[in-house]
C-alpha cells in the first residue's frame, strides 16, 4: 500500500474517533457509556433518554448534537443554555421529543442548523434571540399558528414549517437568502412570497389555495409543489423558465395551459384533476418535449381517450414514466 493511502486511512480513523453514534441503542441513560470530552459529533437518536448527561457539558469541541426521537421535555433541553462549553455548536437536532416551546439558544452564536420538528411547540416565540447565522430551520409537525420572530435570520436558506396551523404567509420579507420554503399541510388560503425571488423550491401542498398567480416573480424556481389544494386554473407559469418539477395533482384544474415556456420541465404531476381532453396537447408540450421524462394524468376524464397513451408518448420522446407505467423505448 502506498504511503499516501496509509495516511488517508489514518486520517479517516482519527476523524471517526471524534464521532459517537448511539442510534437505536434503547438507552434510558448514559451511565454505562464512555463519553470522551473531545467529541465533535454525538448522535443519541432513537433512545429512551429524558435527561442530558452532565458530561456533555464539557464537550467544548462538539459541533453536532442529535437527541432526536427521545423523551426530552422543555426543562431537560433548557439545561443546554447553562453549558457554555457547547456555545460553539453548529447543529442541534431536537426532533421528535416532548417540547412545547423554543429552547433558550441566545448564546449559541455559531448555530447553523436547528431542528425542532415533531414536537408540541405552540409558537415561534424565542426565535428572535437565535443567532442570525442560522441557515436551516425545521419546525415541521408542531402547533405553530403564526410565522413570527424570523425577520433577523437573513442567512436562512431552508425554512420548514409544514404540518402546523398557519393561516397567513407573513414575516418573510427580510429572508432574502431563502432558497427552500416548505409550508405543506397548513391552512393557507393566499400566497404572499414577499418578494423572495431567490426561492428555488416551494411546497404549499395540502392547504386551501384557489389560485397560483403569486409565483410569477419567483423566476429562479426549480421545484413547485401545490398538490391537494383547490386550484382551478394553471397560470403564472410563463416566467418560470427554470422550473424542473411542477406538482399540481389533486386540484380542480380543467385544462392544461401556460406551460409552453417551461423548456426545462422534467416532472409534471396533474393526476386527480378535471382535465377533460387532450386537444392541443402536442402544441402545449412542445416546449418541454426535450426534457420531460415523467407525466401523471391518471384519474382525469382525458384518460378515457382511446389514444391517450399513444399521443403522450408521441408528443414526449424522452418520456420514461406515464402514470404508473414505465415507458419502454
Could you name the key traits of this structure?
329 residues, mainly beta, Leucine-rich repeat, LRR (right-handed beta-alpha superhelix), 2 domains, 15-stranded mixed β-sheet, 4 helices, 10% helix, elongated, Protein phosphatase 1 regulatory subunit 7, Leu-rich_rpt
Question: So, CATH architecture of the largest domain?
Answer: Alpha-Beta Horseshoe
Percent of sequence in beta strands: 5-15%
Radius of gyration: 24 Å
Cross-sheet strand order for the largest sheet: 1-2-3-4-5-6-7-8-9-10-11-12-13-14-15
- How far the N terminus sits from the C terminus, by CA atoms, comes to 46 Å
Kindly state the number of beta strands: 15
Tally of domains: 2
- Quickly count the helices: 4
The SSE order reads: HEEEHEEEEEEEEEHEHEE
Query: Any low-confidence stretches, pLDDT <50, length ≥5?
Result: none
Q: By helix and strand content, what is the structural category?
A: mainly beta
Per CATH, what is the topology of the largest domain? Leucine-rich repeat, LRR (right-handed beta-alpha superhelix)
Main sheet?
Answer: 15 strands, mixed
CATH top-level class of the largest domain: Alpha Beta
Mean pLDDT across the residues is 95
Q: What characteristic shape results from the CA principal axes?
A: elongated
CATH superfamily membership of the largest domain:
Ribonuclease Inhibitor
What does this structure look like?
With 329 residues, the chain is mainly beta. It has 2 domains: 1-188, Leucine-rich repeat, LRR (right-handed beta-alpha superhelix); 194-329, Alpha-Beta Horseshoe (Leucine-rich repeat, LRR (right-handed beta-alpha superhelix)), CATH 3.80.10. It contains 4 helices and 15 strands. Helix 4 links the parallel strand 13 and strand 14 (321-322). The longest helix is centred in the first third of the chain and has 15 residues, at 3-17. The protein starts with a helix and ends with a strand. 35% of the residues are buried.
Amino acid at each position: 500500500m502506498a504511503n499516501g493511502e496509509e495516511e488517508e486511512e489514518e486520517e479517516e480513523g482519527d476523524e471517526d474517533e471524534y464521532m459517537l453514534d448511539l442510534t437505536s441503542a434503547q438507552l434510558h441513560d448514559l451511565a454505562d457509556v464512555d463519553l470522551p470530552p473531545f467529541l465533535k459529533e454525538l448522535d443519541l437518536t432513537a433512545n429512551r433518554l429524558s435527561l442530558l448527561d452532565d458530561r456533555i457539558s464539557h464537550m467544548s469541541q462538539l459541533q453536532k448534537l442529535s437527541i432526536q426521537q427521545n423523551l426530552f421535555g422543555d426543562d431537560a433541553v433548557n439545561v443546554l443554555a447553562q453549558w457554555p462549553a457547547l456555545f460553539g455548536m453548529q447543529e442541534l437536532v431536537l426532533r421528535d421529543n416532548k417540547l412545547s416551546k423554543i429552547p433558550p439558544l441566545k448564546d449559541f452564536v455559531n448555530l447553523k442548523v436547528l431542528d425542532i420538528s415533531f414536537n408540541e411547540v405552540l409558537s415561534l416565540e424565542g426565535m428572535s434571540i437565535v443567532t442570525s447565522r442560522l441557515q436551516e430551520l425545521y419546525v415541521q409537525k408542531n402547533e405553530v399558528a403564526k410565522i413570527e420572530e424570523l425577520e433577523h435570520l437573513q442567512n436562512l436558506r431552508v425554512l420548514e414549517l409544514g404540518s402546523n396551523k398557519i393561516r397567513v404567509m407573513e414575516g418573510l420579507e427580510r429572508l432574502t437568502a431563502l432558497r427552500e420554503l416548505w409550508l405543506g399541510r397548513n391552512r393557507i388560503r393566499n400566497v404572499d412570497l414577499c418578494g423572495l425571488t431567490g426561492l428555488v423550491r416551494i411546497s404549499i401542498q395540502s392547504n386551501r389555495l384557489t389560485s397560483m398567480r403569486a409565483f410569477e416573480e419567483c423566476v429562479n424556481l426549480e421545484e413547485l409543489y401545490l398538490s391537494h389544494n383547490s386550484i382551478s386554473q394553471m397560470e403564472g407559469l410563463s416566467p418560470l423558465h427554470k422550473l424542473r418539477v411542477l406538482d399540481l395533482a389533486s386540484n380542480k384544474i380543467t385544462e392544461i395551459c401556460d406551460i409552453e415556456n417551461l423548456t426545462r420541465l422534467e416532472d409534471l404531476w396533474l393526476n386527480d384533476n378535471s382535465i377533460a381532453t387532450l386537444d392541443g396537447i402536442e402544441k402545449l408540450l412542445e416546449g418541454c418535449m426535450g426534457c420531460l421524462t415523467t407525466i401523471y394524468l391518471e384519474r382525469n376524464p382525458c384518460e378515457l381517450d382511446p389514444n391517450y397513451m399513444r399521443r403522450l408518448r408521441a408528443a414526449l420522446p424522452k418520456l420514461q414514466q406515464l402514470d404508473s407505467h414505465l415507458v419502454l423505448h
